[in-house]
Amino acid sequence: MRIPGSTVHLLTPKPMNPSPTAPAVHTQIEGDVLLVTIDHPPVNALNVDVRRGLLDAVRQAEATPQVRAVLIVGAGRAFIAGADIREFGKPPLAPSLPEVCNGIEACSKPVVAALHGPALGGGLEIAMSAHYRLALADAKLGLPEVQLGLLPGSGGTQRAPRLMGIRPAVELMLSGRHMGAQEALDAGLIDRLAEGSDARAAGLAWVQELLASHSGVRRTRDMNTLLQNKADALAVLQALREETAKKSRGLFSPLKVIEAVQAGLDLPFDEALQFERQLFLQCIDSPQRAGLIHAFFAEREVVKIPEARAAQPRALARVGVVGGGTMGAGIAVSVLDAGLPVTMVERDEASIARGQANVEKVYDALVAKGRMTPEAKAAVMARLSTSTQYEALAQADLVIEAVFEDMAVKQAVFAQLDRVCKPGAVLATNTSYLDIDAIAASTSRPQDVIGLHFFSPANIMKLLEIVVPAQVAPDVVATAFELARKLKKVAVRAGVCDGFIGNRILAVYRAAADHMMEDGASPYDIDAALREFGYPMGPFQVSDLAGGDIGWATRKRRAATRDPKARYVQIADRICERGWFGQKTGRGYYLYPQGERTGQPDPEVLAIVDAERQRAGITPRHFSAEDIVRRYMAAMVNEGANVVDQGIALRPLDVDVTFLYGYGFPRHRGGPMQYADRVGLDKVLGDIRTFAKEDPLFWRASPLLERLVAQGKNFDSLNHL
Ligand code: 3H9
Known about the structure:
Elements: E1 8-9, E2 25-30, E3 33-38, H1 48-63, E4 69-74, H2 97-106, E5 111-115, E6 118-120, H3 122-129, E7 132-136, E8 140-142, H4 156-164, H5 166-175, E9 179-180, H6 181-187, E10 192-194, H7 199-212, H8 230-247, H9 253-266, H10 269-285, H11 287-301, H12 306-310, E11 319-322, H13 326-337, E12 342-345, H14 349-368, H15 374-381, E13 384-387, E14 398-401, H16 407-420, E15 426-429, H17 436-441, E16 449-454, E17 463-468, H18 474-486, E18 490-495, H19 502-519, H20 523-533, H21 539-546, H22 548-558, H23 571-577, E19 590-591, E20 600-601, H24 603-615, H25 625-645, H26 652-662, H27 672-679, H28 681-692, H29 703-711
Parallel strand pairs: 3-4, 4-5, 5-7, 6-8, 7-10, 11-12, 11-14, 12-13, 14-15, 15-16, 17-18
Antiparallel strand pairs: 1-2, 2-3, 8-9, 16-17, 19-20
Helix pairs in contact: 1-2, 2-3, 3-4, 4-5, 5-8, 5-9, 8-9, 9-10, 11-26, 13-14, 19-25, 20-25, 25-28
The structure holds (S)-3-Hydroxyhexanoyl-CoA (3H9).
């Protein structure tokens, strides 16, 4: 029973949270239970107000004789999503989260946590500090700190192994994955799975059961059963350490997780907590933490575009795809995977059969791997219809054209779409560089035409560049972002130019890599330097994977319009002329004997490089790994600045997200623009000016970069407009 007037607002208004009417934690006495509700939308992140509120609630429980037990719940859609990520990197505010967790665990009255929705990071650490844990079926439990360059820093590395055992706990922390409620119950992380959707009611009922059965305080810190076999535990940790050192390639926090867990075997609990704290603070200070947290916020910020504020998306129930080649089929799979019906149009029956087979191939592979049942495949394929007639698209809400990259061909397709599609249908092109304004202008409805630049393979790659031509209506842009959301893609708004954001910048830093190759670095040196920087592959490995013929065709097409004064490295052409297109032909920059996927350096390629240097009259010079990275990054950042300056990208963070999701940029560096901020824009500009002495046409400092340096600002200052 709720006692009227017993709601206690524990928080006094503070400058950090000036709204006295909305306390982040409120308590009320329900009979003999102190109900503690965390109410800090949207996800109950543990900011300073929540931390203070929780500690005050524990004190209130201790001080109120009527209270026999405490129940902690989260208001809204989450129990607690974790520590407040926005506070990291700022001066710490007391109490710290470890103090709060220890305070909860030390409470002399039983504390129960009832979880629903996300219970992540510090949120799960709060729950593990409670004496009993219950979860509703929708709960998602996890310790995802490594994804932010951190480790669980409020006792998670000590309490999780006590509840789950060493290996499952470390694996949960290293993967950062979310666990469902049933799995958490099986793993020992929670004590009970409750029915229904009301954590408060389920929690209160369980507290009464616990009180009735005289279940007392039960502290996780005292549960040592799963840690008793120290020799086994050390062997498990050693194996995990070796695996992690190989897999996490230069990441700082994963190995620290293992170190912290090991401390729990060697040290008394409180000392192990101290040690965990030290490691946590090291992680907080690491540049990787700053990069990963920038990536976390940037990928949420990137969808905040002016059109989404100005307009509502149009209906999006039926999608058409024109073209059943690799790209069209990949796009169709992506849309089918989102649960939408797709109509695919191709020019003749043979092309239809090929398109359908391309789609089916993807699902057959999943069935073969046991990741999809044949019935599920049949159900998805039933949503795909095909036709050789454009009229089949008459009812589509959105049509994506994915035909050959040729303006005349595309304009012919759009003429057909203009003829058959219903009024208000969104007409999208998947072009990767053609002028979408020109495509739009060829229709009678340019306001409905937009670019949707998928990356190959379209059903796998997360990036979607949404390219916004001059005349497009805001609700069409909003619809494109809504489509991306349904497809679980990361959408970035781009303006019209050759290559949009990603491929335009790629062309520049790729040229910088070619210049270095001709000037003295081998392709293998360049690839190795960039792998060391954090890329999964270097640019020449990527070229071999994608197929050298693609770039070759583009170079030939552009030969006529290339600035004759611009430096042009011919090494790639010499390699392609030999039919060496990379993995698919068994050799490219690397050799791939017997269809191997890891290439071996090829002395003949080095001979070609040497011959080209001689032809160009270049005496090769040495490039260290650092020289290579500096030039590559300077080229990328400079063009990134141009792209922002010209409004092609809304903000520097849009460039960052494009490179994180479409081009394998190492996430722990946050993206190229964030990386440049870290290095210092004055240093990047200094490099560009030095390089310009050799090649002033290529190395022209971006006006934006010059302005920011002159004003003493960084790229991030443009992210929060
Ligand atoms: C930690 O806990 C460290 C401790 O071990 C030790 C400390 C000493 N803080 O993602 P959404 C915001 S590290 C601040 O769009 P969804 C988010 O930016 C933390 N803000 O919703 C967004 O803001 P906006 C470990 C946060 O439903 C809004 O909430 N925890 C936080 O798709 C909605 O988010 C994690 O790493 C936060 N912790 O997904 C979990 N979380 O509306 C991180 C979210 O202004 N969070 N926001 O753009 C998530 O994984 C997802 O947000 C979640 C909800 C699954 C919870």
